[in-house]
Amino acid sequence: MLNLRKRTILEIIAVVGVLGILSIFVVTRSSNERWTAMNTRVAELRAEARSRKMPRTVLHGTPLPGNAWDDYQIALNDAQTWNEDPNGAMLARFVNGDATVDRTLIDQMVATHAEAIEHLRRGAQKTDGQYPYRWEDGAQAALPSILASRKLVNFGVAQARIWRESGRTAEAADLLLDVSMFARDLGANGVLLTSLIGDAAYLMTFNELRNLVLSGKLTKAQLADVEKKLETHDHHLPSIRPPL
Fold first, then answer.
1. How far apart are CA 181 and CA 64, in angstroms?
2. Nearest 5°: phi and psi at 67?
3. By C-alpha distance, which of 235, 184, 206 is closest to 72?
4. Are 182 and 152 in contact (CB under 8 A)?
5. pLDDT tens per residue across span 90-146
6. How many CB atoms lie within 10 A of CB 22?
């Protein structure tokens, strides 16, 4: 009877052992299948991002061939060297209407770094606005600088305000449209972070455009022109779906 009991216990242990080995095999196989499926899906998403076409219409002037970021990056690199306002705080205060900002410093800064505006505007004239993401780099992929982008947008808004105050209202409107194109190119077909940066850039730009319209300095013809260009721009606003 004792031997029978021992044999039964050994048989149970053997069965449990076999079941344990089988469960490890099943779990391992299931994990490997999930890992393979995940890598396959990531590869599909990368291919989709590379092939996704998000054309945009240049809002004014003659469209130029090439990629906008060839010029945007020059402007962003310049923004990173602005020792007069390293973190962009002075520009942000001026844009937000802080009357205590030294206007002389703002005027000097705008004059000194005028080429940054020229490259931003040239980029907005390019037919391709897609940032050259290296999707294969994953989380280490290079992105447009957040700080430099914010500084550049505020710089464009500041220049537009100065032009508005001096009576160059049509030029101010076109510059703000160019800055809004930069905002669009920041947010289009990228990652969630750059999409959010683009939204913030839109907010700053359209706030100033609203101020320009409310100033009453645009003629009826100029207002109609801005409306037409904004309607065109509206068709190319980036969706949040690709970043998500």
1. 14
2. -100, 130
3. 184
4. yes
5. 999 999 999 999 999 999 999 999 999 999 999 999 999 999 988 888 878 899 999
6. 10
